[in-house]
Design brief:
Blueprint (H helix, E strand, L loop, with lengths): L3 H34 L1 H16 L2 H9 L7 H23 L3 H9 L4 H39 L5 H10 L3 H37 L1
Helix pairs in contact: 1-2, 1-4, 1-6, 2-4, 3-4, 3-6, 4-6, 6-7, 6-8, 7-8
Length: 206
């Protein structure tokens, strides 16, 4: 932890994995909105999401590596593994919106954004928060696994693979501990940010 190489690897891995996680959240939100609006879309999206959940991560890593560079594979894999969880939680949250409030918003001709802000977001926040926490954990595990297989430069997964290859047991445990601690730290940080934003929203509404 006192070397610059360590922090460069941590920074690059965090950027890749968090970038994939944010991409998964945006994709899941769009797909959930589409499925909530059109029931047929939910039926069409259910089999692919189930297939993603059931397929081993290593298979996707190798397949995506055929078309993408090693540096981009962890981003895509982190996003791909997190999308089904984020999508299902977002869709569940949309379904928890009170139909009477939705009807009331239509009667008073609320704009689409106002309806989302006042009706849907309060109803779905708990489900989305829980889903994002789970999705972030899957994104970290899948992203580091992709780095270990593809071995991009400046990556924690690459360092884990090198430690295994050269039988550096101490380095292997150290990098594994760093991955776990960083995952927990990022999850806690995002949870604090979420709670802070939620508290400010409540004070603003009051």
């Amino acid at each position: 932890a006192v070397t610059a190489a360590f922090w460069r690897a941590v920074a690059w891995s965090a950027c890749r994995i968090l970038g994939g996680f944010l991409l998964s959240c945006l994709t899941a939100a769009a797909l959930a909105a589409l499925a909530a609006r059109y029931p047929l879309a939910e039926e069409l999206l259910a089999p692919p999401t189930a297939a993603v959940k059931a397929t081993p991560v290593a298979s996707f890593i190798i397949l995506i590596w055929l078309w993408a560079s090693a540096a981009w594979v962890p981003v895509v894999i982190a996003a791909l593994m997190a999308v089904p969880i984020a999508w299902s939680s977002t869709l569940q949250g949309l379904g928890e919106a009170d139909p009477q409030l939705v009807e009331l918003a239509a009667v008073y001709r609320f704009s689409r954004w106002k309806t989302v802000r006042l009706v849907y977001l309060p109803a779905m926040k708990n489900a989305v928060a829980a889903g994002c926490r789970s999705a972030l954990g899957f994104a970290w595990k899948a992203g580091v696994a992709a780095e270990a297989l593809c071995r991009p430069r400046r990556a924690m997964g690459t360092a884990i693979w090198n430690a295994k290859t050269y039988l550096e047991t101490a380095d292997l445990f150290a990098w594994t501990a760093a991955v776990v601690l960083l995952s927990i730290a990022v999850e806690k940080l995002l949870w604090v940010v979420w709670r802070t934003a939620e508290g400010r929203g409540r004070r603003g509404a009051a």
